[in-house]
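Quick one: structure tokens for this chain, please?
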Amino acid sequence: MRAALWFLALFGVAVAVALFAGNNQSTVTLFWPPHRVDVSLNLVLLIAVGAFLVVWLAMRALSGLMALPQEARRWRIQHQERTIQAGMLDAMAHLAAGRFIRARKSAERVLSQERALAKVELLDDAAYQRRSQRLRVMLHLLAADSAHALQDHATRDGHASEALALAQGRELQDMREAVQLTATRWALQDRDFPLAQQRFDELPQGAARRTMALRLRFKLARFSNRTWVALEVARLLGKHRAFSPSGTQSLLRSLAIEYIQAAHDPGQLSQSWSRLDNNEKNMPEVALAAARRMVLLKGEATSALMWLLPIWEQMTANATDMSPAMRVQLVGVLEQAFAMQSPGPDAAWLRRIEQAHMHNPRDELLQYLAGVACLHMQLWGKAQQLIQQATTRLQDPVLLRSAWCALARLAEQREDAEAAAKAWRQAAQA
């Protein structure tokens, strides 16, 4: 469409010129005493246009001739820049391919070429100087990373220092942060945790919140055995989707359990539990670990039972949502917590256990737990009946042994030596 419009315009101009020049009888008279020259106006216009074209072409030719040295210089600079870019790509490819010696040599060779170019060309070009600084920082970083892979710490630290010295000012802030993050990673890989922490603390606040920086902080916290810091960072990484949802849950669960296990007294354990968020508290493994730790430290049984209440409700609401091993652990921890109370479980827990047992009377775990509750309430006959029935279906050896021990003590209480001996023998075999 555009070409058709150009053709129409060209034809229009041609028609206008033909109409103007075809019937134009005007003349131009030049007086040069004692001479007089009469020239057609069309010829004068043609001579004027021709003279303008000649002068314009002459000026273009002269300008091109004068610009030859500058063009030659520009071509030389472009050729050297292409060579530098190709060398930098070679260094990056060698580093990614594991050819660390070649990568370091390529980076150092490009650095020498870039320095030579900067000394003789475009010294007054500010934009070129900024690009040159960024390029040098990147080349130093490539050379340092290659030297780190070769365990050449002296060369690595030298290139890193030069990169940090070049990366000054706001325009090169991102390059400086890249060097600092990489230096932190090097210190972590060398297991120099104080240096890694120092490098990480030097990062700006904004850079320290990025996903890569959080990963480094998480590794540093794990290597330094700072479980709480690792747990906080894992929460942030989960929000940033650094891991899959299942991976995040597994990581938070393991860290929360480790944090709980680090408590050395009931007060510290209660404080550690209060610092966990609701998602972590509702994890069955975490709640069981906290309650088991409270029982082991001989703390308050009411706290352990309160922590286990959501897990108990989850198990009684839908038993298939919890693994059999988890259900066994829950019953075992509840039994230990009840044993710490005097005279046993309170009315609320008795009601919960009775309702759960009535809802599912053939569940051996609930049957055993109901028998334990009756045993604490000194309902000897009912306790013996429930525990005796549970022993025929219990699969866990720990609970089975506890059940036979309870039956043995009940037999001794009613002075049935034969039944007590049989129960103790079954407990030993379990």
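The mean pLDDT is 85.
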